[in-house]
Amino acid sequence: MIDIEHVSKHYVVDGIAVPALSDVSLRVEQGEVFGIIGVSGAGKSTLVRTLNLLERPDSGRVLVDGSDITLFSKTQLRSYRRKTGMIFQHFNLIGAKTVAENVRFPLKLTGEYTTAEIEQRVDELLELVELSGHRDKYPAQLSGGQKQRVGIARALANRPKLLLCDEATSALDPQTTQSILHLLLDINRRFGLTIVLITHEMDVIRAVCDRVAVLDQGVLVEQGRVAEVLLHPQHALTRALVQESCPQGESAKISARLNLPGPLLRLTFLGAITHQPVLQRIAAAFALGFNIIEGVIGHIKETPYGQITVQVIGAVPDLARLEAAFGEHSVRCELVQP
Ligand SMILES: Nc1ncnc2c1ncn2[C@@H]1O[C@H](COP(=O)(O)OP(=O)(O)OP(=O)(O)O)[C@@H](O)[C@H]1O
Ligand SMILES: [Mg+2]
């Protein structure tokens, strides 16, 4: 649906060129939730803003359904932007307008709907974001989560095909973050809306994204399916971001402290196998024990996963056979320490 091709962008600050994006290429498929992660200043906002041309690339192309939006006329761009919603970290609501007026605003701007149509759509949208009882309140009278729900209702007003989310949950507490992410996923599924979401938190990526790209100082350093990137990060920054959300990697130290002999294996489970007694089966088959040193079990979107480091206790068999045995259960087995 969207192809970003070799996009570069710099800003000029005090006469000095500051690169923000360097030769970024990526593809977002229709209907998916695509995450872009990176630390502050990585260029995330700049990248997501090239998707509605709030920032114009210096070079490269942004193709949406095959058309290069950087070549759009004013009229084409206006109608494209109407079909591209955006929500922000600080909500960007109009403080002097009520909830209903904020949502009504983009509908009125089009000049295409009758008053009755507008009112019906506003009702529908407020119901969708569960704010029907707050329609006459002003933004200052709402919690952060409620403000973001207004932001979402407003972004969806003109039935966009694409929703851009710039750190939409960064100002919210963990529980409210979950409820907003839940709402975004629900909208993605119900309306088949494509979502591009930027964040500095791997937990957000894990909860809602199908694929992810990692941006480091304007350079796209890694991209792929969330499970693959999360469970087997390749780039140092990706590893650091994964580690931040889910600390692991102390197993060598822990096993030294325990002073136990035996190799350390890292086992990765993805899907239904996560909840099967694979360890027990393999322990029985090889007459071994496994000492779990550290690990994590959770969900990537709805898919269960686990990644644990175990120490092999007992007469250690040929490791290749052990690896193959885990492999037969679709469990990836890697030697961390011999
Ligand atoms: N309008 C601007 N004028 C000058 N420099 C800018 C402007 N916007 C961004 N930059 C610079 O471009 C780089 C990328 O900024 P960007 O806002 O895209 O990063 P970000 O990943 O969204 O960061 P954050 O997580 O803090 O929001 C940074 O070095 C930033 O200082
Ligand atoms: Mg930003």
Give a written overview of the molecule.
GO terms for molecular function: ATP binding; ATP hydrolysis activity. Part of the ABC transporter FtsEX involved in cellular division. Important for assembly or stability of the septal ring. InterPro entries: AAA+_ATPase (IPR003593), ABC_transporter-like_ATP-bd (IPR003439), ABC_transporter-like_CS (IPR017871), ACT-like_dom_sf (IPR045865), MetN_ABC (IPR041701), MetN_ABC_transporter-like (IPR050086), NIL_domain (IPR018449), P-loop_NTPase (IPR027417). Pfam families: ABC_tran, NIL. This is Cell division ATP-binding protein FtsE. The structure is a single chain. It is elongated and about 80 Å long. The protein has 2 domains: 2-244, P-loop containing nucleotide triphosphate hydrolases (Rossmann fold); 252-337, 2-Layer Sandwich (Alpha-Beta Plaits). It has helices spanning 44-50, 74-82, 99-110, 115-128, 144-156, 174-191, 202-208, 226-231, 236-245, 251-258, 278-286, 319-328; strands at 2-13, 16-28, 33-37, 59-64, 67-68, 84-88, 162-166, 194-199, 211-216, 219-225, 264-270, 289-300, 303-313, 332-337. Helix 3 packs across helix 4 (115-128), helix 3 packs parallel to helix 5 and helix 5 (144-156) packs parallel to helix 6. It is of the alpha/beta class and 338 residues long. The strands form 3 sheets. A 6-stranded mixed sheet has the order 6-7-8-3-9-10, sandwiched between helices. The structure holds adenosine-5'-triphosphate and magnesium ion. Adenosine-5'-triphosphate is lined by residues 11, 13, 18, 20, 38, 40-46, 200.
